[in-house]
Amino acid sequence: MSKYKNLHRWMFIPLIFMQLGIMQDYWGDFSQNAWSVHVHYWTGTVWYIYLIIQPYFVTHGQIERHRTNGIIGMFLAGGVCLTAFSMMNRDLVNAQHAMEKPDAFGPFQPWFFMGVAVVEIVMMAAFAFAVIQSILHRKKMEDHSWWLITTVFTIMMPALGRGIQNVYIGINSKHWPDIDIMIPIYITVVLIITMLLVTAWKFGKLRHPATYLSFGINAFIFLLEPLGRSKAIQEFLTSMIKG
Fold it and tell me: pTM for the full model?
C-alpha cells in the first residue's frame, strides 16, 4: 500500500474542480435554491471529502477509524444517490419552462434538459453500482478503494459542467441566444476523462473495471443531445418522472 500514501492528496484535485464548477450556480443564488439542492450539494461535497480522509486513514495505520468511517460513508453514498434521483423532476420542469418561455432560456431548449435527465439517471446508476462493488470487494483493499475513488470522476460532470458552461456563455454572451451550449459540455467530458486516466495511470489502474465504467459513463455524455431530442425518450421521462 506504500504507493497509495499520497492518494489522499491527489483526491483534492477533483474536489477543487467540483467546487469551482458549482460555485456560481450554488453560492450565486444560495437563498433561492430548493431544499433538495442544498441536501444534494452537501452530501456530494462530504462524499468527496470522505474520499480524501479514507485513503489517508488506511495508508497511515488508522484501520479501525477507516472501517468506522466506511460504515458512515456507505450511508452517505446512499444519500448522494437518492437525493440526485429525487431531483429528476427539476429537469422536466426546466424543459417545460424552456418550451413556454424560449426567450428567457435562450440556447437552453427543452431537449437539453431531457438529455441531462437521461445522463444523470445513467450516471447515478453507475455510481450506485460502483459503491456496491466496493462493498463486495471490501476485503481486497486496492479493488475496494479504486471502485470508490472512481466515483468522483463518474459524478463530477453536473458540477464541473455547469461551471465551464457558465464561463463559455459569459465569453460568448454577445452572441446570445445563438450559442452552442454543447461545446462546453464536450470540453468538460474531455477534462474529466483526462483526470480519470492520469490518476488511473499514476496508481496502475488503467485496466481496472472501475476505470472502464467511469470512462464509459463520461463518454456516454457525448450522446446527451441525440438522447434529449428523441421523442420516445421525452415521452418515457414525462410518463415516469412526476413531481
Answer: 0.90
